[in-house]
Amino acid sequence: MRTARTLSITIIAAMLFIAAPQARAQTQDDLVLMQTFLEIMTDYFQIIESTYDVSADPEKAAILQMMKIQEVYEERGEKARSVDVLKGVLDDSRNPTIRNAAYMLLGDTLKETGRADEALEYLRRGLDENIKATQ
Description:
This protein is mostly helical. The protein is built from 6 helices and no strands.
């Protein structure tokens, strides 16, 4: 869904693109450059909008933060350290959405760090919670 800002930018971009061929000094390369710039600006505003949407939703923000923590540890060559963070999330949160994300991220991390049995244990716990929640 586009916000009014994104729609406005798209309309302005389309108008500029339509009017551009009528400009006298415009070459084909100039038009391509202008079109590329407008596409980049539209994409930039969509990224801002998406970031806002994630930031405004505590569940989405928590999931993204868990992923970013995992990413930072991985870049530092310390991916296994994110295990404690994810276990802490499971200890602290009762929110099913956040818990599901933590279980999946924890399972992946444990598997990738050579702890497949422990990964299966946590993935089964998550599965059990979800099955109980549907009854």
